[in-house]
Fold this sequence. Notes:
- The complex is a heterodimer.
- Chain A is of the alpha/beta class.
- The model of chain A has no long low-confidence stretch (mean pLDDT 89).
- In chain A, 39% of the residues lie in helices and 24% in strands.
- Chain A has two domains: 4-81 and 173-254, P-loop containing nucleotide triphosphate hydrolases (Rossmann fold), CATH 3.40.50.300; 92-158, no CATH class.
- By secondary structure, chain B is an all-alpha fold.
- The longest helix of chain B has 27 residues, at 40-66.
Amino acid sequence: MSDYVLETKNLGISFGGLKAVQDVNLKIKKGQIYGLIGPNGAGKTTVFNLLTGVYKPTTGTFFLNGEELTGKGQEKINHKGIARTFQNIRLFNNMSVIRNVLVGLHNQPEFKCNPFVSMLKLPKHYDTEVRMRNKAKEILKIFDLYEERNNLACNLPYGKQRKLEIARALATNPKLLLLDEPAAGMNPNETAELMDTVRYIRDNFDVTVLLIEHDIKFVSGLCDEITVLNFGTVLCQGDVEKALNDPEVVKAYIGG
Amino acid sequence: MNYFKNIKNAFKFKNCINYIIVGAMLIISLVMSSMGELPRSSADLLAQMGYSILLAVSLNLVVGFLGELSLGHAGFMCVGAYIGCYFANSLYEVIDSKLLVLIISMLIGGSVAAVFGLIIGLPALRLKGDYLAIVTLAFGEIVRTIFKNQPAFGAALGLSTKRFGSDLYIVALIVVLISLFLIQNIIRSKHGRAITAIRDNEIAAKAMGINITYYKLFVFVFAAFFAGVAGVIFGSKVTPVTYSFFSFNYSIEILVMVVLGGMGNITGSIISAVFITYLNFQLQDKLPGELAALKYLVYAIILILVVIYNNAPKLAALREKLSISNAISSKKKSKNPAAQHDDKNRWDVVPTKIPMDEIVSTDLKQEKAYTPDKPEKGGTE
């Protein structure tokens, strides 16, 4: 067992001649909230896509709790314990809020149920469904979405859609939660609330959080450590204050 | 004890409206036939409705719930009809009971069709939308051409089958009831949720750890099985089974049933399958001789009118007024306001894609006044 929840070694991908991300080395300790920032087009989301198996890395490897997951499929990586949210919200729009969370619970070993059992409505089917339902309600209560549980996901206001996406990702019982711009499009109140929520889930769900965010206040208020990316390479890594005041980082953001 | 409570919930009117529709068809026709009032043509029509419902509901699984356009459903039916009836012909020599032979041949026809479903499901993993539609279309044509050129299956003359007789509609409708039970249970379980999740957002479904390969193949196999069963029923009604019946046009007709009834809406599929079969039957009956050419014109006009006026506001309001399930639930609501927020009883109602107003009526209206045009203001301010 390694000390780090997530460890990447020289992770990189190139699309043809374009080196989108190269030599990213992340070491994230258990229980940390880790930030990944950088100007637009720096390759932050690409790193997420590499970690969740959307892209297969062309160079390098990554490990979750010491187990190599490089090149595995998306479902497999999710089963192993990496869940994510998306930059542009991808909910199941035509399903109700609670059903979105229930889909997240689908692969939990405690809710295993053979299709043929469901087909014949054997007692086990009801048992699993009721237990799944209760678990989903619990999760929704934490995210203050319980009252809206029977609304369609597409009819939720934007902030709540973001929250629902996090709730759904948490339902898959991840060890590492990847949040892609969770505070985008939120007003200051919602952002503050989100910060509390992220801390709460870190403390109560036993997860480590890796997040991408442009809101520097959000990052500096929440993250324990950050990595700054620019043009696909790591500019600076480590303590938040130090990294944000690094001249290279300032230059990348403001220019000059 | 809990199990029995759940079973009781499953018998709620809203959850078993589909069984009631088909059951009513069966009981009314049984009563009529016992009084000797059921003409032979009606019994034929009922059997035809039976397999149309099976086809429409199973295609709805693929098109409405999984969200993949399949134009080869008649191909699966063709496989079921030919293989099932071929076995039935040899089984008749061994087994005396007609019913037993029909049941065994339905299972065989369904299973072979399911194997073909697996084969056609494999490209579905890589193809999407129009491209998959083209592959399935080609599949339908290839299958019937293969059977056309097999002397063992009667070649171009068709496979001569033994007719089951005028009682076929009883078997057909009972098979429909059983199939509806299986299909609805799957749709209303966690597996159904996974399937609708794939339809709604495949990328997100993958990221949630849903095994897309498994569920896509599952749906194709499942739907093909019921299409195969429908094919065997068809083969027991019509003899000989000819390749020309399972043409592209027939696939489209099944698709029309699904689209007309609303994608992802099983009750709608049943009603539209019954409606279209009846319409076809009447048009064939009422337009004799030269006028028969007009059949497709009238058919098209009726379909266009239905599609245009289906969502007309006045008609929607009228439907609301007449809706039995709404009337029942509103009565209950007024009786027990505390139960309004208790959703324990409807966790197995499936949200659907196209008929939004229906979802509102079943899932949301009971909760509170709901305005889709004006979403609630976000934020705490």
